[in-house]
Amino acid sequence: MRRFVIFACTIVGIVALGVLLPHSQFSHRALAAPQLQTNWSTGACAGNDSNGWGHWGEAHVCELRESTLTLPSGYLSVQTTNGSIDIAGEDRSDVALEATVNVWAPSESAANDLQKKIAIITADGNIHAHGPHISFFTPGGYSISYRLRVPSKLAADFHTVNGGIHLSHLDGRLRFGVVNGAVTLDHLNGDVEGQTVNGGIHIVLAGAGWQGAGLSAKTVNGGIGVSLPENYSAHLEAATVNGGISVDFPITVQGMIKHHLDATIGSGGPAIHTQTVNGGITIKHGGGSAE
User: Fold this and answer.
1) What are the distances in angstroms from CA 62 to CA 39, 88, 150, 162, 226?
2) Residues 85, 78: contact at Cβ < 8 Å?
3) Are 203 and 260 in contact, with CB atoms under 8 Å apart?
4) pTM above 0.70, yes or no
5) Most Cβ neighbours (<10 Å): which of 160, 188, 216, 221?
6) How far apart are CA 188 and CA 270, in angstroms?
């Protein structure tokens, strides 16, 4: 019964977040809007038709903003309220940033006016939006999705409320958090930890084994899929409350696999930990990318 009460309270909180947060952005009422950096370039969104798309029938405009920045401290933080975050590691020392800014309002002119008031801050590697406060009862709103190409070795935090997160080819201390959205972790190493509340998690492992402290990925409502090479070595940990666990290759375990798995494959190694409350966990051999 205690578990049920805790679970019910969690669901109530999730519903409240889902209703209120899609209509809000970061509020900075007491501050004047910062000026956009001079090295931004802007253009139309690919495939965008602002005359044929709306949010609940409102007019819509979309702008693609691009910039390049450095990370003097080697640390990156990205947060958004309504939008996705896509991070790809490359052999580079700077960060290439693309921000897709979608704005909706009662009229196209109002949407354009709102768009001009939205700034994207990138100071000290902390990327977030600064714009007018939008409440649940305010007409119009905006969402910002980020796509970044970054150094493959990185320390970073990523957070979004309504949108997914996709991290690929990164090695470092990585933390992520999502309220409503799926998570994809593709060819990662290092010290990786995070969770989503409403959304599945897809993990693609590569190489002979995990390099670094380990991986911990959790969700409340969603399934988890793990794909790994046939000769991969690791310590696998998986747990689910309402769901099953399936593995498509032979492993040695004590007892039956039902809601919990603790097993060493190959020569062992750092822990690959996955956990869900409502959903199943599938672990299978496979290759390629999660994209």
Assistant:
1) 19, 23, 24, 18, 35
2) yes
3) no
4) yes
5) 160
6) 13
pLDDT tens figures, 77-116: 999 999 999 999 999 999 999 999 999 999 999 999 999 9
In angstroms, the CA 239 to CA 260 distance is 4
> Look-up: residue for tokens 């593995």?
247
For tokens 């897809």, name the residue.
202
Instruction: Decide: helix, strand or coil at residue 234.
Output: strand
Question: How does DSSP classify residue 181?
Answer: S
Rg value, the chain, Cα? 21
**d(C-alpha 95, C-alpha 151), whole Å:** 7
How many helices (H) does the chain have, and how many strands (E)?
Answer: 2, 19
Domain residue extents for the chain: 1-151, 182-291
**Residue 41, exposed/middle/buried by CB under 10 A (0-12, 13-18, 19+)?**
exposed
Q: Tell me the per-residue pLDDT of 224-279, one tens digit each, with 9 for 90 and over.
A: 999 999 999 999 999 999 999 999 998 877 556 789 999 999 999 999 999 999 99
d(CA 272, CA 218): 11
